[in-house]
Design goal:
It is a single chain. Helix content is 50%, strand content 14%. With 402 residues, it is α+β, with helices and mostly antiparallel strands. The chain folds into 3 domains: 114 residues, Butyryl-Coa Dehydrogenase, subunit A, domain 1; 110 residues, Butyryl-CoA Dehydrogenase, subunit A, domain 2; 151 residues, Butyryl-CoA Dehydrogenase, subunit A, domain 3, CATH 1.20.140.10. Strand 2 and strand 3 form a beta hairpin. Helix 4 crosses helix 8 and helix 10 runs antiparallel to helix 11. The longest helix is centred in the middle third of the chain and has 37 residues. The chain starts with 13 loop residues before the first helix and ends in a 7-residue tail after the last helix. The N terminus is likely disordered.
Length: 402
């Protein structure tokens, strides 16, 4: 651990963890689920609602559970946080409502931020007074090929950097106070060396939100522009040219957190499916008495159980700081597929009601479909995992079975 690292807490005893997860699950069910439509709509009303949810979470001792205790968080270790992340993730808005949405940024800036950045931003990130976003993908370059990044950060004669370029599919950029941007600080497009991360306040002259990019009709993604935006030297994250190393750390944890949250949403869809099968009565009895509906229940449960094992295995390795590329690739792909599959089965059992606004199933299905592209499409993870497994076999028999 370097002097820039902030510990993420100590493990919680199993009994305490079970109770904490139950409280988080109840908060999401009772406080977040009923307000999802308002939060989805965005705007000032959603901002005010998030503030009220933050106050409620703080009042019940559930705010920022996985964030460092010495910064105002709950100090729960990453490994212990896994089951809580699944409970929070039952709603897309759960992590923000409970203060864990900033975990990736707090972790990154704790390890790689300058002393000024850590002093100025970390506590405010943990408290929820600041919101962040992460800008990596560009309109004219595949998101899976960061070496093609064209956004540039040039050294200024008087010190600092000038950033020029455009990014898109940036989550929450419309309300963010800070954006971490991937930019080329040396070399040319296609070079492996020369990529850096810079932290940019969104009130900087030259920063602009170009447009919102609805994902299958849902809000929250944006295209942004940097038109000769100036940032100070101490807003460089890590060292120049270190972006791919830092991004790699961030991606392993980020993909695992997403997988846990998608797992929580898949469980929510499964619960809806089962209740519908039991409660919906037809001329020949309950839907659940029909073999085809029973098959939907079985296949959904099978997918959930298998995916949960993969995701928790990945989280255990990430929490220990071990190489988890294979496990994270499997977990991310499985969780995305499972969410889409289980939500689809639930829609089928609900029939026309599953397509309308009276259940969360359309949103859950939409998230599942988008999940197969976000944080790397299925195809990228399939190829990456397979290559690593085959390289391991080529080096000798000591390869972890997949």
């Amino acid at each position: 651990m370097t002097d820039h690292d902030v510990p993420l807490g100590e493990p919680v005893p199993d009994a305490g963890l079970d109770e904490l997860r139950s409280r988080v699950s109840a908060f999401v069910r009772d406080q977040v689920f009923p307000r999802e439509a308002q939060l989805d709509a965005g705007g000032p009303n959603a901002t005010e609602l998030r503030k009220r949810l933050r106050e409620e979470a703080c009042g019940t001792g559930l705010w920022a559970l996985p964030l460092p205790a010495d910064l105002g968080g709950g100090g729960v270790s990453l490994r212990a946080y896994a089951s809580i992340a699944e409970a929070e993730g039952a709603s897309d808005h759960g992590p923000a409502a409970l203060g864990s949405a900033s975990l990736l940024d707090v972790t990154m800036l704790s390890r790689h931020g300058s002393s000024r950045v850590r002093a100025e931003y970390l506590r405010r990130l943990v408290s929820g007074d600041l919101r962040t976003c992460y800008a990596m993908t560009e309109p004219d370059a595949p998101g899976t090929e960061p070496l093609l990044t064209a956004t540039r950060a040039e050294r200024r004669a008087g010190g600092g950097w000038t950033i020029t370029g455009r990014k898109w599919f940036v989550s929450n950029a419309g309300e963010a106070d800070l954006v971490t941007v991937l930019a080329r600080t040396s070399g040319t497009v296609g070079d492996r060396d020369g990529l850096s991360l810079l932290l940019v306040p969104t009130d900087s002259p030259g920063f602009r939100v170009v447009r919102e990019l609805p994902i299958l009709g849902a809000t929250g993604q944006y295209e942004i522009e940097f038109d000769h935006v100036h940032v100070d030297d101490d807003h460089l994250v890590g060292e120049p040219g270190q972006a791919l190393v830092i991004a790699g750390e961030r991606l392993q944890l980020g993909r695992t957190l997403r997988a846990l949250r998608w797992l929580g949403q898949a469980q929510r869809a499964f619960d809806l499916l089962c209740r519908r099968a039991v409660e919906r009565q037809g001329a020949r009895g309950a839907l659940g008495d029909r073999q085809l509906v029973q098959q939907h229940v079985f296949e959904a449960l099978l997918a959930l159980r298998g995916t949960r094992s993969l995701v928790y295995e990945a989280m255990a390795l990430v929490a220990e700081g071990r190489d988890a590329h294979v496990e994270v690739g499997l977990a991310k792909t499985a969780a995305a597929r499972t969410l889409q599959d289980v939500a689809d089965r639930a829609v089928q059992v609900f029939g026309a009601a599953g397509l309308g606004p009276d259940t969360p199933l359309p949103a859950l299905f939409r998230t599942g479909r988008a999940a197969r592209i976000l944080d790397g499409p299925d195809e990228q993870h399939v190829s990456s995992v397979a290559r690593r497994v085959l390289r391991g076999l080529q080096r000798g028999p000591a390869v972890t079975p997949v």
